[in-house]
Design a protein that fits this description.
The protein is an alpha/beta fold. Helix content is 38%, strand content 12%. The protein has 2 domains: 189 residues, Glycogen Phosphorylase B (Rossmann fold); 171 residues, 3-Layer(aba) Sandwich (Rossmann fold).
Length: 428
C-alpha cells in the first residue's frame, strides 16, 4: 500500500518533536563565571539543640517510676534500703547532681492506697494508685500505672511482665538456703526471681550477691550492677541511754544481737555461746521481732542468760550499740550485712561470722568466727571482755569501712546506670 504521508509531512513532524523536547546539555559550550559573580555559599546551619527533633520541638520526656510497695510493708533492712535510696535520689535530683540526660525527666513514686509510711520528697512526686494489695498490686495496679516509663523496684519484687524494669534483688537466699523458708514463701519468690531474670534487668547490693544471683539465675555477672547498702541513716540518731536501766543491763557488761529471729540469723549459736560463757552478769540482749510465720523458728526463747528486748526504737538501739561490750552477728547467709555497720557508727566492737557478704562488708573492722562454732564465739567474747572498750586503732579501721558506703554514692551509681544511652532511650 502506498505511503500516505509525504516526505514533507515527516520533516514537519520531526521539527515539532524537537521543539517540544526539553533542552539538552549535549553540545553546549561551558561558560565560566567570574569569581566576583559566583554564588555565595549558604551560611552554616546552627547545631540542633539536644533533646529537640527536626521539627524544633522537645522530644518525649523521660519517665521514671519507683515501686513504692515497700511503704506498705513492715520495716526491715530491705524496706529501709528502698526508703533511703529514694530519699538520696530525691536529694540528687533537687541539687541537679545528676547526669545531664536525666535532668528533665519526670519522676514518680507509685504507692499502694494502703501504704502507711510516708516520705518527705522534693522532686519525686508521690502518687497512690490502684486498690489491690501485696503481690496483686505489684503485678496489676503498678504494672498498669507504670506503663510507658522505666520502672525501678528496690525491694526484691515487682511486676514480672513490665517491659522496662530494673529490680534490686538483695540476695539469692531462696535458692541457696531453701531450708530457711516455708514452702509457700519459697515457691512464690523462687518463681518471681526466675521470671524477673527473664523479663527485667537485675541489680543487687554486694559483689557476693552479684556472683550468687548470676549463678542461680543463669545471668552474666557483668550485667548486674551493684548499688550497695549503707548505715548512714543511723548516724543522725540520738541514743536513748534510758533503755539500759529499763532492760536492767550495765554499760560494757552485755553482748548485743539485733535482727529478726530467723534461721539465717543463726541466733541459736549466739545463745549457745553466751551459755558457754556462763557469766550471769554479762547477758546477751536480743533486739528484734519474730517472723516465724515466714521463716523456720530460731527464737531461743526460754534459754538462760538472755534479755529479750523485742522491737525497740532506733534511739534505744543506738544506745545499746554505744554501750555494749560487742555486737554479735552470727549469720549463716547475708546479701550484705547492715547491722555491723550500724554498730560501727557508735564505736561498738563487732564479732561476726565468716559469711562471705559479711566479710566483704566489714573487712578488717570485725573479729570473725565460723558460724557454727559456738565455742569460737565464746572465746572471742572472753577476749573482748578482757580488752574492754574499743581501741583507737580498732576505731580507725571501723571508720575506714564506714567511709566506703553511703546512700548518696549508691543513688548516684544507680542514676549513672540509668543514664547509659540504651537505658535513657528505653525510658522515653
Amino acid at each position: 500500500m502506498a505511503d500516505l504521508y509525504t516526505p514533507a509531512w515527516h520533516a514537519a513532524r520531526r521539527r515539532r518533536a524537537m521543539q517540544a523536547a526539553p533542552p539538552s546539555h549535549a553540545g553546549l559550550r561551558h561558560i565560566s563565571v567570574p569569581n566576583d559573580c559566583s554564588r555565595a555559599a549558604p551560611p552554616p546551619r546552627a547545631p540542633r539543640e539536644p533533646g529537640r527533633n527536626s521539627m524544633n520541638h522537645r522530644g518525649p520526656q523521660l519517665k521514671f517510676f519507683i515501686n513504692g510497695r515497700f511503704l506498705s510493708q513492715k520495716l526491715t533492712g530491705v524496706q529501709r534500703y528502698a526508703a533511703e535510696m529514694v530519699k538520696a535520689i530525691d536529694v540528687l535530683l533537687a541539687s541537679e547532681q545528676i547526669p545531664t540526660s536525666l535532668r528533665n525527666a519526670d519522676w514518680q513514686l507509685l504507692k499502694p492506697a494502703d501504704a502507711s509510711e510516708e516520705l518527705d520528697l522534693d522532686r519525686i512526686k508521690i502518687r497512690a494508685v490502684g486498690r489491690l494489695h501485696g503481690h496483686a498490686w505489684d503485678q496489676i495496679d503498678l504494672a498498669r500505672a507504670a506503663a510507658g516509663g522505666r520502672l525501678i523496684s528496690l525491694a526484691n519484687s515487682g511486676p514480672v511482665f513490665h517491659r522496662d524494669h530494673i529490680v534490686v534483688l538483695h540476695d539469692a537466699q531462696v535458692f541457696r538456703r531453701p531450708d530457711f523458708f516455708n514452702w509457700r514463701y519459697l515457691t512464690v519468690h523462687r518463681t518471681m526471681g526466675r521470671m524477673l531474670a527473664r523479663h527485667a534487668s537485675i541489680a543487687t547490693v554486694s559483689g557476693f550477691s552479684r556472683k550468687e544471683l548470676a549463678d542461680v539465675l543463669n545471668l552474666s555477672a557483668s550485667r548486674i550492677p551493684v548499688f550497695p547498702n549503707s548505715a548512714e541513716h543511723f548516724a543522725a540518731t540520738k541514743p536513748d541511754p534510758g533503755i539500759l536501766a529499763r532492760l536492767g543491763v550495765q554499760p560494757q557488761k552485755f553482748f548485743l544481737f539485733v535482727g529478726s529471729k530467723t534461721k539465717n540469723k543463726n541466733l541459736s549459736v549466739a545463745i549457745r555461746a553466751i551459755q558457754l560463757l556462763d557469766r550471769a552478769d554479762v547477758p546477751l540482749v536480743i533486739v528484734g521481732g519474730d517472723n516465724s510465720k515466714v521463716f523456720q523458728d530460731n527464737s531461743g526463747e526460754g534459754a538462760s542468760g538472755l534479755v529479750l528486748a523485742g522491737r525497740l526504737t532506733d534511739s534505744e538501739i543506738a544506745a545499746l550499740y554505744a554501750h555494749a561490750s560487742a555486737f554479735v552477728f552470727p549469720s549463716l547467709y547475708e546479701g550484705f550485712g547492715v547491722p555491723p555497720l550500724e554498730a560501727m557508727i557508735f564505736g561498738c566492737p563487732v564479732i561476726a561470722s565468716r559469711a562471705d557478704a559479711v566479710v566483704e562488708t566489714c573487712g578488717d573492722g570485725a573479729a570473725y568466727f565460723d558460724a557454727m562454732d559456738a565455742e569460737a564465739l565464746k572465746q572471742l567474747m572472753l577476749e573482748r571482755l578482757a580488752i574492754g572498750v574499743i581501741s583507737d586503732q580498732e576505731r580507725r579501721r571501723q571508720q575506714d569501712r564506714l567511709a566506703l558506703y553511703s546512700w548518696k554514692k549508691s543513688a548516684k551509681t544507680l542514676l549513672d546506670h540509668l543514664a547509659v544511652p540504651a537505658n535513657v532511650a528505653s525510658a522515653a
